[in-house]
Amino acid sequence: MNEERMYKVLLGAHISEKATLIADEVNQFTFKVAKDATRPEIKKAVETIYGVSVKNVGVLNVKGKVKRNARGLSKKPSWKKAYVRLEEGHDIDFSSAND
After folding, report:
1. Domain coverage including residue 58
2. What's the structural domain count of the chain?
3. What is the mean pLDDT of residues 43-66?
4. Which residue(s) pair with 75 in the sheet?
5. Taking all residues of the chain, what is their mean pLDDT, rounded to a whole number?
6. Which CATH number does the domain housing residue 13 bear?
């Protein structure tokens, strides 16, 4: 897998209350990924970009919600989420990634 594809697979970290809890408890991080990304591609991208060792990857498709507004109904886009569990002793610090 080339370097361009790695950056297209990982769209960014998904930061939420649940994601923060599982990161602290079981060393598992959540990423928003491309819809056509596979588990091996996600694993290789995380290992290469963040320099960590990945234990396993779980993926799920998040369905877009239907919202009601003044003009009727609208639908948010569906997207794909990946839960990446790291080996013991490895960690990703998103706060220092922007420095």
Report:
1. 3-86
2. 1
3. 95
4. 66
5. 92
6. 3.30.70.330
